[in-house]
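Input for the complex:
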Amino acid sequence: MKAKFLVPLAIFLALAGFLGYGLTLNPSVVPSPLVGKPAPAFQLAKLDAPQETFGVDDMRGQVWLLNVWASWCVSCRQEHPYLVEMAGTGGIPVIGLNYKDERQAAIGWLRAQGDPYLATVTDEDGRVGIEYGVYGTPETFLIDKDGVIRYKHIGPINRDTVQKVLMPMIAELSRAG
Amino acid sequence: MKPRSKRLILLGSAVALLVGAVALVLTAFQQNLVFFHTPTEVAAGKAPVERVFRIGGLVEEGSIARNDDGYTVRFAITDTAQVIPVTYRGSLPSMFQEGKGAVVQGKLTSDGLFVATEVLAKHDENYMPVEAQYALDKAHQANQTVQY
Amino acid sequence: MIAELGHFALILALVLSLVQGLVPMIGANRNRIALMAVGRPAAQGQLVFLVISFACLTYAFITSDFSVRLAAANSHSQTPLIYKITGVWGNHEGSLLLWALSLSLWTVAVTVFSRDLPEAFMARVLGVLGWISAGFISFTLFTSNPFERLLPAVAEGRDLNPLLQDPGMIIHPPLLYMGYVGFSVAFAFAIAALLTGRLDAAWARWSRPWTTVAWVFLTAGIAVGSGWAYYELGWGGWWFWDPVENASFMPWLLGTALMHSLAVTEKRGAFRSWTILLAIGAFSLSLLGTFLVRSGVITSVHAFAVDPARGLYILALLVLVIGISLVLFAWRAPKLAGGGSFDLVSRDSSLLANNVLLAVVTGAVLLGTLYPLFLDALNLGKISVGPPYFEATFVPLMVPVVLLMVVAPFMRWKKDDLPKTLRKLGPAFGASIIVGFLVAFVIDHVTWRTVLGLFLAAWVLIGSAQLLWSRLAERPGAAASNRLRGIPSAWWGMWLAHVGVGIFVIGVTMIGSLESHTDVRMRDGQTATIGKYTFVFQGVREVQASNYIAAQAKLQVFKGDRLLTTMTPEKRNYVASAMPMTQVSLHIGPLRDLYVSLGDQLDSETWLVNLHIKPFISWIWAGCILMALGGIFAASDKRYRRLAERSAPAAAARQAS
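Predicted:
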């Protein structure tokens, strides 16, 4: 075998190596230890009615989304229309966790952007956020009828996330049990 | 001509061609690579002055304004951490909207204004310019480290 | 139900493709005619099932069956019928199915038109095509099933991306895919040659028409895509060196080299291993192109993250196809090398030089396309490689290609006389330089780029005229019509394609030199002048179509005092996707296009309007049409058909002697 005939193969292997290495760098899939575990319980004040509280237990028996957001977060603005759309057409209840935010700013933001949330609770000091392992906003958790976290999405959701990931899982979880 | 010297000439010209091509590619790379910086990097003075580069991020809400001449547009681009003022002369892509992702290419002036020669908005509603997304992610990671 | 039928047909097609990949290969190895003969019916049956499968998916789109996820995501009940149909392949899953379908069409075409190939050779060709098909269909089935249901069904679909709702996009993907996939035939022939150890002039003659036809499709596909970008994206550019465009351009460049290399292999038996390598390369780049574009890796390496299974499958398939063929090449090609020797001054050597140059250009484009991906993959930062890089590398490397392109047909095979050739072409060369400068002065745009472009165009056209003349002078005494008829179709093909390059270069040079463009604010009754044309703005009105609402401006265009035309650019808002779109208005002419697009609305009555004059842009498309036409002529040469009529082994024996 003459060496020169191996040159194309060598070049190709180098290229493939790069591409393969590229594949292993996968920033958005951060395995969450919480997936498959019960959602950490909380009882927090509602955004629009601070004297009332709301918690994970209130959602038992339903499949629902917990969306972590803040009025200071620009990416949240980007994903917001999809939440509004899902809450409107998808028939899935979405609970907002207003994270490290100011009440007035948050209320104003919802007024301007539309309010997809069945209820919004305030996590002013970010303690609940820590329990949920929140890296930053926005993050979205899919929680089943038994209060178990089934999926966690980091960063803004988009049309693809809704259609390819969330909707199928929601449909499946709603059917189950 | 002897086969041997013919081989040498062939080999020589092939090598010359390859060297020429490599030199061409390298100089073209040197002169025409457009680097990318996030607004945070630009604000920290890490971006070059008077050299073309790109910034990506979201178009700051409420920042789009046209000069009286009608052609020059001013807006700001942000990665949620820092805001960079931009001016651009010409027509904006139809996808260019406040609060949405965009990438601008141009030069930074010494007083911190970015003079864009090209504005790239996303091509459809699902696709965020990669560079804009990248800038947001960076800023996002930066926020994280501050928070915890 | 229909969707399940389509899914089932696709599964059956996969089974048949595996049969086609396996059985004839075993037959060829053990020399069992019965096993080898399985290839044909398997390939034909596979086509039947793929057609059924594709028809079922199309049916779901036409009937707006939004319980099929793909239809829901890419169609809308109010979309015009034609875009419901094109919506079938305006997405990842559907386009993969189209890929599989065109591969199957090509395979069946091979079984029909190359009936006289030796049985064992045909079996291996079909086997290779069967494996490629199996790879694609399984990729479609397991990672990108187009027939996936969406339950519960949605009431209304999201509509096809408005950018794709355009006549150009109806034919662009099928043409491009026929081109991409067509190189799989040349590839299969190359692999079969490596496997059988048979690589001679007859082999080259078998694969030439297939390669040429694939190249014609690719040429047409790229041209249509470029035309689409020109008037649909609203910037007026016709080529952006965008990674997606490069992905189709690279196989074209290497395919061009392959066509010429095959010519040498056929005529002279030389360049064998080089030809094989080009066949592998052209197909590999086609695969890479399909995947880069479809997987989204081109926008970001990390786009794979959306669906890592897809990414891994793609990479595995690429590595398998390219890796195995290159291993095979390294193993078998040394034994096949050889062939006629040739002198440094000969048609062989000038074709070789052009081949190498084209390969180097391909490499430069590949590097510019992939380099940002490498940096991104290695987290070394984000950069972009824009048009300036590609122009700076492409132009200097292509200049010698165009120069040699004219010289090569004048040279003899094997050995020619340098001084004689120079004497023959000297006057044409001098005349071209004079024409280049003269035209540049006339159009009052003397830059080195313009002069160079015009010189090259003149060189190609004058050289081609001289070539035709000398060809006709070969048979003095015969009547002119007889002399014309005596020229084989393949020669006309070469000639037309080369003239096409000349026309193309004129278009590119003129648009680069004389293009003019202005943005103006306009309100009712206001006028703007650009070049010899005066535009009168006559207000904007709202128009409504089935799936969009548009603001439509009306502009009267005057040339001098004469009303030339009325142009109506639009800003559309597609209802289903809430996507804004700019629809330009074009006035096409042989020497220039007028190109008007509507910009932003500045106040209730004032709009920003972009006016462009695009000189000679039609020449770019005309050049591409000529090149494609040349390919058709070349592929339809009589001698390929004569070969089919004679028994192939006999022809091969004759060739070998």
